[in-house]
């Protein structure tokens, strides 16, 4: 699945991704596949897998989208 970073706080360790298919999806730093290897900035293209949690949809295995 693909989307764009809507917002992300390094300090808080979470943010949100805009997707066409599923609207806004939550992402936690633990779901970032290459955590620490790239900074998440608003508008960055990313790819990820979707996981259904008790609190809703969450992105996991997040990585930069290939150009």
* Order of strands in the sheet with most strands: 1-2-3-5-4
- Proportion of residues in extended strands: over 45%
CATH-derived topology: OB fold (Dihydrolipoamide Acetyltransferase, E2P)
CATH homologous superfamily annotation? Nucleic acid-binding proteins
Radius of gyration: 11 Å
What is the CA–CA distance across the termini? 14 Å
Number of domains: 1
Helix percent reads under 10%
Please give the oligomerization state of what you see: single chain
The largest pleated sheet is described as: 5 strands, mixed, barrel
The SSE order reads: EEEEE
Count every beta strand, where a strand is a DSSP E run of 2 or more residues: 5
Gross geometry? globular
Low-confidence stretches: none
What CATH architecture would you give? Beta Barrel
Number of helices: 0
């Amino acid at each position: 699945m693909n989307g764009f970073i809507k917002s992300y706080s390094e300090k808080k360790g979470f943010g949100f991704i805009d997707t066409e298919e599923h609207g806004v999806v939550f992402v936690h730093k633990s779901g970032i596949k290459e955590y620490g290897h790239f900074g998440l900035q608003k508008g960055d293209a990313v790819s990820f897998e979707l996981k259904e949690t008790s609190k809703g949809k969450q992105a996991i295995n997040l990585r930069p989208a290939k150009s």
